[in-house]
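We give its fold:
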Amino acid sequence: MAPNAEVTWSGSLYCLNHEIPVRACYHPALEMMKNFLLYCSRQEWMKSAVLKIPLAPRLARRFMAGETLDDALQVVREVNALGLTGTIDHLGEHVTDPAEARRAVEIYLDALQRIVDEKLDANVSMKLSELGQDIDDCIALENARIILEKAKHLDVFVRVDMEGSAYTQRTLDAYLNLKSTFENVGIVLQSYLHRTRKDIPFLVGQGIRIRLCKGAYDEPSTIAYESKTDTDQAYKDEVTMLLESGLYHGIATHDPVMVDWTLAEMKRLNLEPSAFEFQMLYGVRRDLQTSLREQGYNVRIYVPFGENWYPYFTRRMAERPANFFFILKNIIKG
């Protein structure tokens, strides 16, 4: 494998950028690998084992800026230099210690101030479970308000991330509570959930800006689409709903098919490229990121950082199991 090759989704197979596209049927082994990696993302014993591998943090930096805010800000400078914008996310979730939740608040306050002081083109994304949602919804709301008040003062936009389906309604309820006071806040929806087709009209009807992603959690078929065909169709339908709303949304995808669909819908609706933005993960499809920007489209890069990188890193492996083999090869070589 070439050292700078990236693993991406193409058709129904995982393949490498810049290699000859492969057309074949979906392989069930990949689904098994995906489910295994999603299982691992929730296991403390697996986390402990991975963290003992000396090379693991360095390999994880393929998908994250590093462990410190300075690392994240440096990446934002680099993407800004390419004409891309950023969104900074401190990695952490399911916090059960109020003091730890408060430390997360302080990190976000520092990030907001430095974005402004250093004149960076970036905003922030936050998870309510890192802010204490697993302790009490009121604690998470109080901490989120502190961050949003600072962001409002500095004129920085904040996005509330979405987590597993057990948190979907709670997160939306909390978000709507925050939105009643703050204008500088948006939300994330996951297209693979059946409910998203109904959530979008409700939210856009209130002028709410949405980041639409496919979703990266292991969900039952009773609430989420299982097949790639159904998930793709839902994503296409929901992209159209967002573009028709007239609001500025984030279309989060690395799939060239979905990118092409979005561009075709933009043209069908006679929209300008500035009417929306693509959002992509740091370390994934850098070629596509820069290509879209060169064509005049807005592209925002999701820049995660922090010491609690394991769950995020493992979910990135699950999204593209071939990435797992790429990382495993490097661990063996190291």
